[in-house]
Amino acid sequence: MEVKQGYSVAKDDTEFSNSLDKIVDYRGDSTVFMQDGSTVEGYIFDVVAETLHIYPIEGDKKEIPLTEVSKIEVTGKDTAEGKSWEAWVAKKKKEKEQQQNEE
C-alpha cells in the first residue's frame, strides 16, 4: 500500500492501523474527518496512546482521540517528493550545464 495524495482510510477499515503509521510518515497535510461531521486539516506528526497529534493549518497543535475519528484522507502534496539526493544532483548538473552554455 502506497500512501500519497488522495489516499483515504476509514476508521473501521482493517488496514487503519497500518495506514495510520504510513500517514504519520507522510510529509504532507491530511484531513481528519470526525465522528461529529467536522474536519481538521493539517500535518499529522504522531500517534501516542490512541491519540492523534496534528499541527492544524489553522490554530495550535491538537490532540485528537482516535475514538473521535471516522476517516483520514491524505489531501496535501508530499513536500519532500522529488527531493531525493539523485534529483538534487541532476538539478545541479543541469544548472552547471546552463551556466557553461551562457559563457
Can you offer a commentary on this structure?
The protein is α+β, with helices and mostly antiparallel strands and 103 residues long. It has a domain at 8-78: Roll (SH3 type barrels), CATH 2.30.30.100. Helix content is 27%, strand content 33%. It is built from two helices and six strands; from the N terminus they run E-H-E-E-E-E-E-H. The chain has helices spanning 16-25, 85-102, and strands at residues 8-10, 30-34, 39-48, 51-56, 62-65, 69-74. It has a six-stranded antiparallel beta sheet, covered by helices on one side. A hairpin with a 4-residue loop joins strand 2 and strand 3. The protein is elongated. The model has no long low-confidence stretch (mean pLDDT 86).
Largest sheet: 6 strands, antiparallel
The amount of helix comes to 25-40%
Could you please say which CATH topology of the domain at 8-78 applies here? SH3 type barrels
**How many H/I helical runs?**
2
Briefly, what CATH class of the domain at 8-78?
Answer: Mainly Beta
Strand content: 25-35%
Instruction: Report the count of strand segments.
Output: 6
Using the alpha-carbon principal axes, give the shape: elongated
Based on secondary structure, the structural category is alpha+beta
What's the CATH architecture name of the domain at 8-78? Roll
Index terms:
SH3 type barrels; 6-stranded antiparallel beta sheet; single chain; alpha+beta; 27% helix
